[in-house]
Every structure is written in structure tokens, then in C-alpha cells.
Amino acid sequence: PGAKKGDVDVNIISPEKRHIPHKVVDSGNGVFRIEFTTVEVGSYVIDVTVSGLSVPNSPLIAKAYDASLIKVTDIGDGVVADLSTFRVDASKAGEGQLEISINDGDVPNAVQVLGGGKCLVTFTPEQAITHEIEVTFNNDQVPGSPFLCRVRDADNLSGAGSSGDLTNGYDHVTVELEHLALVAVSEPAEFTIRVPE
């Protein structure tokens, strides 16, 4: 109370150690608002003094995030009753709450954390319909969301050959991918597809 705008001194440092310009707005009755624009993802250190004295809890920490830096990849067509997977990379987006909803939450999904802000998402479609995958970060839509995943019945898969002799065998085809959760760059990786007969 009784302080003037000129008594308020603010120093804001970005995650890359840059000084961030700001504006002090006098709202009246000894209340001041500090406005600044974040320029990068990460923690901003805000040091505030009034008449040369640090305010309580100063320096303050503000954490900036950017939902547009989240990458969703590997969404392919699905098959009813078969496990579908895709990947989400939030490593560059900052801190926050990642939420994934498939068909407005009607289709359960499981998230396997791979480390470094990356995760593998799995779900098992039960209907041969296009599934909408909505991905949000701190309630902000990730670019491209909702993502579409077309799901077909197992007996309607194309590519079975004109003779149709594989059409009834798809139920028994298995793909072993569990060990591919982490794959080293520039090294051969392999997986097995088992097709009876």
C-alpha cells in the first residue's frame, strides 16, 4: 500500500538466460500487474522488488509450455479386436498434463511411458468405425487433433489375394512387437510375423 509504479522493479530471466521485456500496470489501490510474453518453453525466473525490498517468495517461477511442439506419430489403420498403437512425443513441449481420449473416452487406452517425454499409446478397437483420437496438453489441442484411425473388420482386410485363400486365416496371424518399445538408432531391428499355413 502506498507504493508507486516506479517503486516496482522486475527482472525476468528466460530458460535460455535472456532478459525478458515486461510492463508494470498500476491497477490502483497498491495492486500492480506484471505483463510479459514467453519466448521459449521452460522455467522463467521472476525477481520482484518494491522500493529495493524483495517481495515474499521472490524469485517466482513461471513455467511456459507449447502444445504445438507435441508430435503424434505412427497412427495407422486398425482392425477390430487387434491392438492398435501410436506414439506421442512431448519432449520439447514443457511441463504439463497430457490427455488422450479416443471416441470421446468410449474406447479405453493405455499409456506406456518410454522416458524423455515420449510414450506409446495402445488401444483395442471393438467397432469397425473411424476412431477419433483427441490429444490435448494442458487443455490445449495438439496440432492435428483429433487424429483419425480407420478400423476394419478382420474378415474385410484387403490384400488377401484374388484367390481369397488367406481371408479366413487372418484371425491366427500374430505380430510380436513388444520388444520394439525401445530401438537403438542405426542398428538393425527385427520383429516376427507368424502366418499359419
Strand content: 35-45%
Class computed from helices, strands and strand pairing: mainly beta
SSE succession = EEEEEEEEEEEEEEEEEE
The outline comes out as elongated
Low-confidence blocks of residues? 159-169
Helix content: under 10%
The major pleated sheet works out as: 4 strands, antiparallel
Span of the ends, CA to CA: 84 Å
Helix count equals 0
**How many distinct beta strands?**
18
Mean pLDDT: 87
Radius of gyration in whole Å, from Cα? 26 Å
Structure description:
The chain has 197 residues and is an all-beta fold. The protein has no helices and 18 strands. Strands 1, 4, 5 and 6 form a 4-stranded antiparallel sheet that branches. A 4-stranded antiparallel sheet has the order 7-9-12-11, with no helix packed on it. Strands 10, 13, 14 and 15 form a 4-stranded antiparallel sheet that branches. A hairpin with a 2-residue loop joins strand 4 and strand 5. The N and C termini lie far apart (84 Å).
What is the secondary structure topology, with strand pairs?
Elements: E1 8-13, E2 22-28, E3 31-36, E4 42-50, E5 53-54, E6 60-64, E7 71-73, E8 78-79, E9 84-89, E10 98-102, E11 110-115, E12 118-123, E13 131-137, E14 140-141, E15 147-149, E16 151-152, E17 174-176, E18 192-194
Parallel strand pairs: 8-16
Antiparallel strand pairs: 1-4, 2-3, 4-5, 4-6, 7-9, 9-12, 10-13, 11-12, 13-14, 13-15, 17-18
